[in-house]
Fold this sequence. Notes:
Low-confidence stretches: none
Mean pLDDT: 93
Amino acid sequence: MSNKRDLKKDLNYVFGDIIDAALLWQIANPGEDVAKSEAIIDESIKSFDELIAEVNKRGVENTKAHFKGIRQTLETKATDLVTKINSL
């Protein structure tokens, strides 16, 4: 079972990489409209904030199941955001 610190690091790395990819797309395509990539960045930040709030939630009865659910949500949201970046 992973601990809270590792889960927070994973959230930071995954969403940081997604934001980096969106910014790199903006740099590589200066003539394109950046509104779509900015929306992806905003969605990444919002998702990060939501999941960090879930990680920091106190009084959870089954922490193992709680963290597993957060990891599944992370995977789902990250896959969705990467798909959006790839479709730009």
